[in-house]
Amino acid sequence: MAGNRWGTLFCVTTWGESHGPALGAVIDGCPAGIRLTPEEIQRELDRRRPSTSAASTSRAEKDRVEILSGVFEGQTTGTPIALLVRNTDARSEHYDELRNVFRPGHGDYTYWKKYGLRDWRGGGRASGRETVGRVAAGAVARKVVRAAGMEVIAYTRSIGGIGISPDALTRDQHWEKRVRESPLYCPDPQAASAMEERLAAVRKEGDTLGGVVEILVRGCPAGLGEPVFDKMDADLAKALMSIGTVKAVEVGEGCAVASKNGSEINDPMDAAGFVKNSAGGILAGITTGQDLVCRVYCKPIPSIALPQQTVDESGRERSIRVGGRHDICVIPRIVPVCEAMVLLVLADHWLRQKAGGR
Fold it and tell me: How confident is the model at residue 56 (pLDDT cuts 50, 70, 90)?
């Protein structure tokens, strides 16, 4: 299957299925001499695991990472880094009745049309569990990005239409700490409480919710990005859109620019630098030195307990209910996945900038 590799210099190939023996990633191009331990990768994987939130599934995978190659005596060697995470709590029998049926909102039909067969156990490669490899690789990319002086943090902006206060990030200087402590990775405690109530109510209804995640990059130097097809915002959009649940990506003010005047959107400059940041830290596809700001819009989880109309592989109409163990919302578990994809983009572009002698 093509399309499982990301990057030009910092290259990542992910592999594995939801109900297969294991998942993982192979990273090629990571510089030698970077200190790296399994515990650092494990911390990121633990953030992706089900939380105490009402949004999360009951599937209890430990997601213990194994470093198979590319690290010696706690340092990267410059050779490919192979990471493995074993599946230990898959219950494929939950999908026996759906093996010949196309679940609405899933990739069942499209995988079947493309390949003539599909892994019906939990969606196979199209499952959200595929993101384990991304997060593991992102933990390694974070080491490269931090060494370059950059930091990436993602957080929840809304769930099911319930959003954080417009001043949530400016009124509380400790908002990043709140994000880390919140089961929903939400910087606004009042909004988080309302989100939890909404999630609990929707779970009882047998339905699911979508949401919005915002990603902030601090310390990004000016000059990253490669015109014209590898613009920084183009690569960020592709990386984030490659996450199965994401249906839209915004950079800076995003869609709002279509209804404003140029005088409102242009970012003026003075002797100290840029006065504002409508562009989200990117102009002409190249970083400006300001914070990078982007948002992803995530669809509701397609596995719902309500009756749904569909067809089977023979074209017969069917009505189904999707059983098994599923999240009610991709948030909060998608938050570290969004961070990982941005980290992969930054690590790759940073190394490309250095390779060009810039």
Answer: low
| DSSP letters for 167-216 | TTTTS-TTHHHHHHH-TT--S-HHHHHHHHHHHHHHHHHT--B-EEEEEE
- Which tokens go with 130? 């595929």
CB burial class (10 A; 0-12, 13-18, 19+) of residue 312? middle
Cα–Cα distance, 139 to 312 (Å, whole number): 40
- Whole-number percent of the chain with pLDDT over 70: 96
Q: Which are the contacts of 103, defined by CB distance < 8 A and separation ≥ 6? A: 302, 303, 308, 310, 320, 322
How high is the pLDDT of residue 53? 62
Q: Taking each helix axis from N to C terminus, what angle separates 334-355 and 38-48, rounded to the nearest 10 degrees?
A: 140
pLDDT at 21 over 70: yes
DSSP states along 46-73: HHHS--SSTT---------EEEEESEET
Looking at per-residue confidence, does 54 or 22 come out higher?
A: 22
Find, among 208, 171, 211, the residue nearest to 190 by Cα: 171
**Structural domains of the chain ordered from first start:** 5-355 (3.60.150.10)
For residue range 276-333, list pLDDT tens digits in order.
999 999 999 999 999 999 999 999 999 999 999 999 999 999 999 887 678 899 999 9
The pLDDT value given to residue 54: 63
Closest by CA position to 262, among listed 243, 248, 282, 278: 278
Separation between Cα atoms, residue 120 and residue 17, nearest integer Å: 10
Lowest mean pLDDT among 62-71, 92-101, 142-151, 297-306: 92-101
Tokens of 70: 């590319």
Exposed e or buried b per residue across 328-339, where buried means at least 16 C-beta atoms within 10 angstroms of its C-beta: bbbbbbbbbbbb
State the residue for tokens 């592989």.
313
Secondary structure letter of residue 94 according to DSSP: G
Q: What is the pTM of this model?
A: 0.95
Burial of 89 (0-12, 13-18, 19+ CB in 10 A): exposed
Query: Residues 200, 161: contact at Cβ < 8 Å?
Result: no
The CA distance from 133 to 49, in Å, is 13
